[in-house]
TrEMBL record:
One of its GO terms (molecular function) is RNA ligase (GTP) activity. The keyword Calcium does not apply. Mn(2+) 2 binds at residues 236, 330. The gene is rtcB. This is tRNA-splicing ligase RtcB. It comes from Hydrogenivirga caldilitoris.
Amino acid sequence: MGLKEQLVRKGDYVWELPKNTVNGQKVPVIIYLSDALFELLEEDAIKQAANAATLRGVQKAIYVMPDVHVGYGFPVGGVMATDTETGIISPGSVGYDINCGVRLIATNLQSKDVAPKIKELMQEVLKNVPAGVGSTGDIRLSPSSMEEVLVKGAKWAVEHGYGLEEDLEHIESFGSLPNADPSKASHEAYERGSDELGTVGSGNHFVEVQMVEEIYDEEIAQKLGLHEGQVTIMVHSGSRGFGHQVCTDYLKVAVRVLPKYGIELPDPQLACMPFLSNEGQDYFKAMCAAANYAFANRQILGFKTANTVRRFLGLSWEEFGYRLIYDHAHNIAKIEEHRVGSKLKKVVVHRKGATRAFPPYNPEVPPAYREVGQPVIIPGDMGRASYLLVGQPDSMEKSFGTACHGAGRVMSRRAAKRLVKEQGLERVIAGLTVVARGKGTIMEEIPQAYKDVSEVVRVIHELGIAKMVARLKPLGTLKG
DNA sequence: ATGTGC
């Protein structure tokens, strides 16, 4: 019998694979889905979550978000917490793109200010913001300046003129993880990262000019400084080749030391090390360094895009009204304190394609947002919409303080290309303004290739994990 | 995701 058939329905949006369903499964797998999204759930994604539930020191449950799909070893949309003393850390459960994440910038502009000239504006963004596989930026980092980026994260970017000091307060972990140790990243990672800072990358990464299309909660929107018709800028990118190399390097290390630590795995892609081992600590410190690279990357991308739009419209900064709403990771592992049973416990929370969604009054939520909760930015596809939510109290018990991260693919890259070839690109993306160096990524990233992000977000809202605040509509998109 | 892959 397949695992999907063994899922037990626990509520309108809650499914459970009880512990011990697969051999050695220490905790249940809890999957959050609507009926429509249940239909799209892949057997292999359940298997991957169940595999993770066998790992050493895993706590409470593996949680799976409604935008789940199969990933490398651990599903995208998966959340795993392991005991900091007895548990493991797993590079595959963070993902190859360490600190892939999203940033949302508010402006004083109205959609009517940009909509009529959006094509010309996006051509200007294409000229100024490097995008695509292997694209390089205008920053060259010597090994010593690279070290500074890896330690300071977004702060490095602000010190070098990209953005404002006050931006840092509105970034997860203030844009800089304290456990970063640049010496734990390889020479190869340094090389790859030396010319890619301030570049978008490829795949689902993008820079987008948007408008606030609908407000769901007026009071919260007001506190966040958002209103209908307002122009926003969204950035979706990560740590580029640097993070990719860190993941590659430490997956090899993990595989090598499995026998030393007596770790047996249901899937070699789940290769991991005890968190407190030398190798586990090395990975953690290198991963934090890669996360800081990504924070710096998005800081530069967001500011460069804003500056391009501002100059195109001939506005002063004051008229433009640049303001960072928030920036957060959705591929990361962090040490956090969570309630497990009756006591608080320090755990390593792995979020892979999953966003931290801390509730109001959590000390990690910046003062300006303390009463509304941590902003949760959910990018959709380039055709439909993206969402802004805020973390709610139930997230702590239901998912280690975690929400979804996006729409999630429903069509393979190959199938998407086939559809475009059959129907023609003009027809498939009719009415959208998308710019890119080539057509390849656009073909793979058509809206039809994605699940409906509204349905994903609705599940998170209904569960009380995060609350819907606003829907953002793409005006123009830059893809890799 | 990725100096993209059988």
